[in-house]
Design brief:
This protein has 629 residues and is mostly beta strands. 3% of the residues lie in helices and 41% in strands. The chain is built from one helix and 48 strands. It starts with 28 loop residues before the first helix and ends in a 14-residue tail after the last strand.
């Protein structure tokens, strides 16, 4: 191992690394070795650790705002995370001013996936890591791993796999602030999203189809001399790239947007316009259903109150970022109250999930509701298990999921079974979780079959065709439990068959016009298909079954020489019946015995007597050959 010298000189920084303090500190060699080993282990095994339910801990950031630590443990990095998103594998994506970074769930290592360290707007069509970006808003990741982030007047995408960057909405303002008359925030509707004028894209969300929703702020003109803030919620349809407006015109800022599993859209309005001509509406969270109906989810009261009651009666102060967990519970940042709050699916009651109302960053390892959270400018996201992630621009923290994930198992017995002769029973078993309620949805080869209670047994399949079937079961979850799935493969074997063979007659006389008729009889279950007849092991003729028999008549014709033949029959099977072969039947052709007549002409002695012997043809008239003695 190469020796390391420790001096007080400033070293040359390593490539792609930024250090807040590049002075080397003098340590004893033994201390150095211990420190190096500790750092190495941290680098290799510092995977993202999710705390128990309701407990808060930091997973990214050392508490100092900056942009350092690429290639190292995320907990040791300086960060300026404005936005946060989590993919299905638990990897964490952060929008950090001049970069977008990813923290691996498996290793806890942080790395840049977009941005060259300079804030700006360049690089579309090329490698995202070579582009200039300004990522100081919302960020989301779709099921394919493509990352979308807000960049002021645009939304940009980092494509999974290739790592290229491109603009998917806006981007053509060149710094101009859109000021519109009347239809606030609707520029470009019905056209390509990249041609639309956007300004201040605050938040973005995805629906289940991957369509992109934008929470944007803009200006609109009241009269010739006065203009005010106004918000708009806009949608980019990914299949066409067309932009449309979902809702617009409220004289407020909007800092959050989310879409539930049914496609209903939610947004927050945190501060109103200052104008005597325009009413101020703040501290609202709205829901717009797929039919277009809009209603209040949080109704505008200012302050902090209402936990345990209806969300519509609660008081908030600056609701901003929104996100849903897998069970449809809505979380939002109550910014000026320095809390994260939850609106439960179904009951729509409101509770506090994190924060005690103090603007600070303390409490790691304890209950999230007792912690101080500096969340005013932050973002939130949930993962597939319901853990909640929140940013405060200098760290990313996570709260252990309140949701339980039960375990679902299914089994079928007997398995395999035989067509038409056996039934099987498939049983579901849901264990763990928190007193789960609900039902199980069953599928066969991916198609809906039936539903049952959580722990149920379903019998059947005796009449199903032979083959393999994937039996699936899905528990949809409830207010406290996440969904669970399980599957098993059920095999139904073909029914066994037997084939008998009878030939008559089994002895033929050479030259006789009578042939032998062989009949194969198949025993099985609803037998259909064909039988192949073999002579001395060579396939000679295939006949279809009529009922459960197939016959072959006159198969030797008139010209066969005397011989013995081994005749067998093979049933070729069908979807539900297995193949089977018969025992051999010997059919012999024996020599003919032609009649011989002798006639003599009487002569007077001593003249010789002439005798003539005649061998006659028999049966089919084949003339005998050979000699007569």
């Amino acid at each position: 191992m190469r020796a390391i010298e420790f001096t007080e000189e400033r070293p040359t920084p390593l490539p792609n690394k930024v250090y807040s303090d590049q002075r080397l500190v003098s340590f004893p060699k033994r201390t150095c070795l211990s420190l190096c080993l500790t750092l190495l282990c941290t680098h290799l095994w510092a995977q993202v650790s999710i705390p128990p339910s309701g407990i808060i801990t930091t997973v990214i950031g050392n508490g100092t705002s900056g942009y350092t630590g690429n290639g190292g443990a995320a907990l040791s990095a300086e960060t300026s995370a404005y936005g946060v998103a989590v993919d299905s594998s638990g990897n964490i994506y952060t929008a950090e001013s001049c970069a977008v970074r990813e923290t691996s769930a498996a290793t806890g290592i942080i790395s840049t996936i977009a941005g060259n360290g300079t804030c700006g707007y360049t690089g579309d069509g090329g490698a995202a890591t070579g582009a200039e970006v300004t990522a100081n808003g919302g960020i989301v990741v779709n099921r394919a791993g493509d990352v979308f982030f807000a960049q002021g007047q645009a939304v940009r995408e980092i494509t999974a796999g290739s790592g290229t960057i491109q603009t998917v909405a806006g981007g053509n303002n060149t710094g101009a602030v859109p000021i519109q008359d009347g239809g606030v925030g609707t520029d470009g509707d019905g056209s390509s999203a990249t041609d639309a004028l956007l300004w201040r894209v605050e938040a973005i969300a995805l629906d289940s189809s991957g369509n992109i929703y934008l929470a944007t702020d803009s200006y609109y003109r009241i009269d010739r001399s006065d203009s005010e803030w106004a918000m708009a919620i806009r949608k980019v349809t990914v299949s066409s790239g067309i932009i449309s407006t979902i809702h617009n015109g409220d004289p407020t800022n909007t800092d959050g947007v989310a879409v539930d599993a049914q496609g209903n859209v939610y947004w927050s309005e945190s501060s109103g316009a200052v104008s005597s001509d325009v009413p101020v509406a703040t501290n609202y969270i709205y829901e717009q259903t797929t039919s277009g109906a809009i209603s209040d989810l949080v109704s505008g009261s200012s302050g902090f109150s209402g936990d345990g009651g209806a969300a519509t009666s609660a008081a908030t102060d600056g609701p901003t970022a929104l996100t849903f967990d897998p069970l449809g519970n809505l979380y939002f940042v109550d910014g000026n109250n320095f809390r994260v709050r939850k609106i439960s699916s179904g009951s729509r009651t409101i509770t506090t999930i994190a924060g005690n109302g103090t603007d600070a960053d303390t409490g790691d390892g304890g209950a999230a509701t007792s912690a101080e959270v500096n969340i005013g400018l932050g973002d939130i996201a949930t993962d597939a298990n319901g853990a909640l992630y929140l940013t405060n621009t200098i760290t990313v923290r996570v709260i252990g999921s309140e949701l339980a994930r039960p375990s679902l198992a299914i089994s079928c017995s007997p398995n395999p079974l035989t067509y038409a002769s056996q039934n099987t029973t498939c049983t579901s078993g849901l264990t763990g979780g928190y007193s789960p309620t609900g039902s199980i949805a069953w599928t066969i080869n991916g198609s809906a079959w039936t539903s049952s209670s959580i722990n149920a047994s379903l019998s059947g399949f005796v009449t199903w065709n032979a083959g393999t079937y994937t039996i699936g079961a899905t528990y949809g979850g409830d207010a406290n439990n996440l969904s669970a799935t399980a599957s098993t493969v059920l095999t139904i074997n073909r029914a066994a068959t037997s084939t008998g063979l009878a030939c008559s007659p089994t002895t033929l006389v050479y030259g006789n016009s009578t042939g032998s008729t062989c009949t194969a009889t198949v025993s099985g279950s609803s037998e259909t298909g064909t039988v192949t007849f073999y002579i001395d092991g060579v396939a000679d003729l295939t006949e279809g079954l009529g009922g459960n028999t197939a016959s072959w008549a006159g198969m030797w014709g008139t010209g066969n020489a005397p011989t013995s033949n081994s005749v067998t029959a093979l049933y070729n099977g069908n979807t539900n019946n297995d193949t089977s072969g018969s025992s051999a039947v010997t059919v012999s052709i024996v020599k003919a015995t032609p009649p011989v007549t002798v006639s003599c002409t009487s002569q007077a002695y001593p003249a010789p007597t002439d005798c003539t012997a005649q061998v006659s043809a028999v049966g089919i008239g084949v003339t005998p050959t050979g000699s007569i003695t």
